[in-house]
Structures
1.
Amino acid sequence: MESQPQHSVIIKAHRGWAALRLGEVWEFRELLYFLVWREIKGRYRQMALGPLWIVLKPFITMVVFTLVFGRMAGFASDGLPYPLFSFAALLPWQFFTVAVSKSAGSLVSNMGVISKVYFPRLVVPLSTAFTGLVDFFMAFVIVLLMMVYYGVFPGWQVVFLPAFLLLALATALAAGLWLATLAVKYRDVSFAVEHLLQVFMYLTPVVYPSSMVPEAYRFLYRLNPMVGVIEGFRWSLLGSGPAPDLALVISSGIVALALVSGAFFFARTERNIVDLL
Amino acid sequence: MTQPAIEVRGLGKRYRLGVAEERAAGVRSLGGRLLAPFRYLRRSLSQASEAETLWALRDLDLDLQPGEVLGIVGSNGAGKTTLLKILARITEPTTGQALVRGRLGCLLQVGTGFHPELSGRENIYLNGAIMGMKKAEVDAKFEEIVEFSGVARFIDTPVKFYSSGMFVRLAFAVAAHLEPEILIVDEVLAVGDAAFQRKCLGKMGSVASEGRTILFVSHNLEAVTNLCSRAIWLNQGRLVDDGAPDDIVRKYYQASMEKAQSTPLDQVTDRSGNGALRFTGFKLRTPEGRELETTATGDTVDFVFDYIAPKGEPLNNVSVWFWVNSQMGQRLMQMESVIVGQDFLSLPPRGCLVCRVPRLRLAPGAYQLGVTATVQGERADRIHDAALLEVSSGDFYGTGKLPPGVFVDEYDWRAEPAPPRGLPSGSDGA
């Protein structure tokens, strides 16, 4: 008598909404790790500066913003040095844009693997978002150095910083899941995302303080989850700008809703993704 | 009684034709979009009509016991790969269900997920993870994998510097050491050199002898007969027959030969290439120009391939070859214009290409004939099952007799007396 294999799967057509099967994603956590590792390790091979680019990119953007918006346009910066003011916002913002644009295109760019091997497809957009997190932590060192240079030190609010990072991650994933699923069918998506993100940056207080937004629209404006993230970063790290309030609670709720619905939408499309790619 | 490793009930998969056609026509590209911006959106939101769909697999029932090695034969588009893809969970079926008991490993195409910038060592771990191996498992088998692949010296070199052969060997080595209870193999053996192919077949054989279940798709019918304990034959998504491999292979071969014989080349749909040149007909002729139904061993015969250039313009740099395969799918010979330096610098837009074979050396029997042409170095037309070549018994030696075997050749027998003792023989002294 042979030993019965424990692993058995029923393969059949699913109609409508499917379960998320998060347990399976957990089983494939090593793959998640290897995909993040592949992206980071593969990306900087044969580059003279290598991983230095992770910190150079936001740094150069910060210098340009300081010259254009801080000096020439003379934007206010909550009484902080403009470089520090903009860099504290650029950190979560760059994480968000990279995570959204990369995960939006992730299913299409990984179609070679997806059409040949089975694994939970959720691993693909997740790994791109996590890759962005690694970049974030590298660039975070720069903001710490800048804070020492300008003599700005965080208060007790700094304990909330991880919560704002989590909100940024959730927002990026929510957008990423929706977009990645749509991009499988409509290749226009990855094309459009790049442009929309540029526009979106001016709808979030990256280069200017949110106090510049007219009073009448400010509540509506602050329902944008990324406004909450960036205000939260400045508040918890630099102690400036408005403290979190009702707007943040509402926008977090919106993110949670978008994330859960995005995951289900993804799971629904996941099963026949290969036929569409 | 053990439970089957795989139970398939009423399995079917429907594809929507329009999407595939549009993709083939490049409508997803910018040009097509500009001409019809919302056409794709409208189509993709509407329900597919029956005429727009194709059943790649339909109503399949199949039970596979643990330890069985199942060969799947059928022409292109018969549903073989669709079946494997459903079982591997790469795509979902439209109808029916399949129950798979045990861990399933998949060699649908080796080397997927390899990152060119990463070293061989790093790619082994990455590839293992993609196929569901834990890092500890890869650690335990790492030495074995490297040894099997034969690329030990280059294991820390980025794989983009590997030759394609090394790449494939490394990828197969990882997949072969996955040790699944069920292994799916699709045409991997079409790559690599002969020695490595033997190694792969050997590995498959040993996997099978350990009582694991294998599903094997190949155009190499000989490999199917040698390796498999059972075979099924699919045609247009349906199961035609199921039984002993040599029996199924013979029936499938006969059917495809009959089809090849009854279908003129211009109506063959199972072909590939860019279509710059299209074969439209095949016939056999005597040197005097008389058409032949069959030929005989020892005859001088012209193999005549009619072609047209659909654009109606003369063709430049045309290379052509045809081949003769045995009933088992083994290549027996291949006549290539390039090898004998007889490529065509320019050809009229229609005509025929003729290959004369003086004294045909094939033994009597039925063979399968395929043909390919390239124009400007790119494949223009390739027909795998172009025709059935029937060779009847002929008078090759002028004695009215023929020996057994696949080929006959000219020879002379003679006797030589032994050299006198004490003297070195002629060959030793040279």
2.
Amino acid sequence: MKKSRWIQQYRNEQKQIHMPMECRMRILQAISEEETAEPISDSTKQYTSDRPLKHAKRKAHILPVLIAAAVAISATAISLRFTCAPATQPDDQDQPPQHLEIYVPATKESDMAYDQDIQELRNKQMKIDTDAIENDKLPTKSQVYYKCTHTGFFLSKISGSIYFSTQGKVNHAGKFSMDFENDQYFQYTWDKNIDAGLTRRQNEQASYFNKNELHRVYRNADGSIGVIHDTDRPTFSRFILSDYPSRGETYPPLETDATDFTDDVWADNSSLDACYMPTAYAETLLSDFSQWEVTSYVQTNSGLAVEVDGKCASGPFSLLINWNTGVWILLKVFDETSETSEGDMVEISFWTRNLSFDDAAEDVPLYKPGNTVLDLDPFDPLDCVNHQYSEEIRN
Amino acid sequence: MTNLTFRQLLDTYQDMVYRIALNYTKNPTDAQDISQEVFLRLFQRNADFDSESYQKAWLIRVTINLCKNHLRSKWHQIMRETFDPSRLAGQNQLPDPEQYLVTDAMKHLPDSDRNILHLYYYEEFTTAEISQILDIRETAVRKRLSRARKRLEKLLKEEFFYEKITLDTAVSK
């Protein structure tokens, strides 16, 4: 069939597909319910009424005026929850994210420098009292702002101040900024004026965070933002920007964290096979999210770290990927003694988890065991994945 | 957003959203669920769109993301593992393959290929626009488009035409 013919045929076919009237009615019913729903006064409040469709879920409704932010560290969880006043940036092209959750799962207890303090911190819930801000009970610098800048379709910058308080009293404050267009750095600095009034223990806690003033930030394909604090002691943070205005997505916090899988993944590498490709091309592949179904990745000073499907892993010289099909890939920097840079080689190893080769989706470029080093075309990274790998497998 | 505005948007985009969802999920029930969620989010969105094209791109982006979420959801995985797809034949299938030759052939393509073909040839987005919508590089879009075309042409040439011709011959006899 000629190209022009199948294109025309396809268009004709698609024109015959219409949304069923029943579906339209359900949408209008859902909107009608939405209009009559009671105002939400708490950012964490969930809708309770049933949706017309059985599979549909209501996401958390976001209070449009406030930015609710929650910091949760690890599965065993430090949970810092704060609510702060909104950005008042009349020049903003889009509204700022209305909900910010900061998810900080730690890798291992033993990795924590201030283990006891952190453990205590985990048990605290901190909340900002916006009334206190408005009543000027806080220092001048406590004016909270939160600004998002957009370039075209995507979020390019976020900056703001964060305040933490216990029992109504602010004891931590800091500023943060993310610039996705340029450095993609996340910077968090503590306000010394406020920190000066802290107790010794609180200061130690602040010091812990101060050590991580510079972070790597990566943007997930699902719209959320992830942070790796420190490559020496890899600790992940996950920022969930709900109602992410530039992308129109709302995502709940992930249920899993870096601690979920590292042990068993790293425990046995006997089934690994390896091939090699320059780091730069690996990056290209990884950035091609929808191809690989990788939800995020980051290039650290000493290696790569990625997160896929809600699970993440990091560490010097390693990269771990989880396909949504259940397939795992491990990338290891070939030369572990030096920092990676463009042109460096990384070892790419594949093995399966939960799935046999036969069970895997046809389009997943699985690599069969066999210690074969594939001859990758360095100028065609997509082909490296989609053709050469799969051809190797199928042959 | 007023009810009237919303209804106008629904009229304009309901088929587009549904088609994309159907292309992705290959299941009308799932496509309806996703369509509903997309329009609910549109309704909940407080900010106005800068332009009509941005609005359309937003809807497509949300639809695709929701489809991806759905496909990787535990619910979907369990359903896929629990139920033999062949048992569901006839219940939630796309329209008759005899009438939907190319659409049916596209079901056999990877999600990413199918999606790009649809956006390019039906929604008539440029590769640059698709690149923005899917958040991938334009070169990757072109690459995939080319690959998807080849795959589809191969399918149409070999498998589907062969089956269709065989079936037509059998019917005529």
